[in-house]
Amino acid sequence: MLEHPDAPAVVRALAPDEPVILNRPHAAARAARFFATKFPGKSLYAVKANPSPDLVQILWDNGITHYDVASIAEVRMVRGVLPTATLCFMHPVKTASAIREAYRVHGVRTFSLDTQEELEKILAATADDEGNLAADLRLCVRLRVSSEYSELSLASKFGIDLADAAPLLQATRQVADWLGVCFHVGSQAMTPFAYVQALERARAAIADAGVVIDMIDVGGGFPSSYPGMEPPPLEDYFAIIHRHFEALPIAYNAELWCEPGRALSAEYNSLIVKVEKRRGDELYINDGAYGALYDAAHVAWRFPVRHLPRGGSNDNAAIDVAEMQEFSFYGPTCDDADFMEGPFMLPAEIKAGDWIEVGMLGAYGAAMRTAFNGFGQGDVVTVSDEPMASLYTGRKDPRVSDNVVSLR
Ligand SMILES: Cc1ncc(COP(=O)(O)O)c(C=O)c1O
Questions:
Q1: What is the structure's pLDDT at 136?
Q2: Taking Cα atoms as reference points, which of 120, 114, 115 lies closest to residue 133?
Q3: Which residue's alpha carbon is at the smallest distance from atom 12 of ligand 1?
Q4: For residue 48, what are the CA distances in angstroms to 45, 103, 296, 375?
Q5: Rounded CA separation 237/121 (Å)
Q6: Quick one: which of 55, 128, 164, 342 has the most CB atoms within 10 Å?
Q7: What's the CA-to-centroid distance between 283 and ligand 1, angstroms?
């Protein structure tokens, strides 16, 4: 793969007419080392955030040994890249054939569930040809918890309600070699208290069921840094989770897991787009709602941007703040819905023929490209500069956060 120092160098070398994805392997490696060494338990990478085989290899090389996979295609991909990784099938609604292939062919032993029907499906799909039940299943019951502290809710679709959890935990305990409780507080949790609240719900479910628990999985939700969304340091999250985990009524040797997707992948990618047209404060660019900017269009996510003028200076910092202006974007398809409100702060002088680098697109960005309307093509190159923001460079001033937490 071609390697360049940064986005301006890519524009100078390629003058790209199609969007270009920029990979930053050093940033993903740094995030992996951070979780592998600082999270007080096991960190699983949630592959859905960015199912790039290159990224999965980088994470493995830097200490991530476990992978949260949610489809049989993700199981096959990760197993193909990493023959000895531990794969955990954490989607609570799976097809029987996917469970069977994962168990028999790819060595998956850990599955999540949130209903009695899913439990029975897992048991049937993993039984041997004589109908004997598998004796080595590691099963996680997913609880429904609040998403109130997170930017993207995951509270509606999956998870059993606290009131119904005890019978499912008891039934699962009967057949599981190892029993976990998992949940997801929603993506981009802006304060560690999201996990405190969820762990309290886990405590109530465990006490109600009166079963031995071997593992607590606090899921994903660990934030990254975006304009207007500056989270507290991740160490705050880890410390509070650990403290509350230690106080749970669980087996003395119970494990603590987490499943970060966004936090491990956001800094891996940015994107260069070309401005095709300007209409007042609206810029028509060549990626959008059906591409890597899916979240910018569908949930009004604000990503950081940087102007890359044709043949000019490339440093936003060099431009007087007074010359910056708020812009919205239209994507390349014929759809009115291909619109990203922003606002995206760019120099007032920006014009058709210029380029923009959109940062922090490694999570739920680069993975979202489709071929709708014939778009979605473009190069992928590697760059060596820093991402537009980072939770891992150690240069962050915790006072910048809106949600600083005292650990005393
Ligand atoms: C079960 C599960 N685990 C982990 C994740 C990753 O979440 P995040 O990217 O917020 O860390 C998701 C995201 O949808 C999920 O559904």
A1: 97
A2: 120
A3: 220
A4: 9, 20, 18, 22
A5: 35
A6: 55
A7: 32
- Closest-CA residue, ligand 1 atom 4, reads 220
Read off the pLDDT band of 45 (50, 70, 90). Answer: very high
pLDDT digit string, tens, across residues 18-30: 999 999 999 999 9
What is the pLDDT, as a whole number, of residue 317? 52
Polymer length of the chain = 408
279's torsion region: left (phi>0), alpha (psi -120 to 50) or beta? beta
Ligand 1 nearest atom to the CA of residue 259, by list position: 4
Rounded to an integer, the average pLDDT of 105-111 is 98
The binding-site residues of ligand 1, defined as CB within 6 angstroms of any ligand atom, are 46, 48-49, 68, 90, 154, 184, 187, 219-222, 259-263, 363
Question: Residue 235, Cβ neighbours under 10 Å: how many?
Answer: 15
Annotation says 140 is catalytic = no
The pLDDT tens digits for 369-405 are 888 888 888 899 999 999 999 999 875 544 445 443 3
* Average model confidence (pLDDT) across the chain: 93
Q: What are phi and psi of 121, to 5 degrees?
A: -65, -45
Cα 48 to averaged position of ligand 1 atoms, centre (Å): 8
Residue 401 neighbours by CB under 8 Å, 6+ apart: 230, 231, 232, 233
Give mean pLDDT, residues 316-328: 72
The sign of the dihedral angle between the CA atoms of 390, 394, 400, 403 is: positive
Q: Structure tokens of 396? A: 């962050």
The pLDDT value given to residue 407? 35
| CA–CA separation, 281 and 343 (whole Å) | 10
The mean per-residue pLDDT over the stretch 79-101 comes to: 98
Give the pLDDT mean for 83-109.
Answer: 98
Distance from residue 221's CA to the centre of ligand 1 (Å): 6
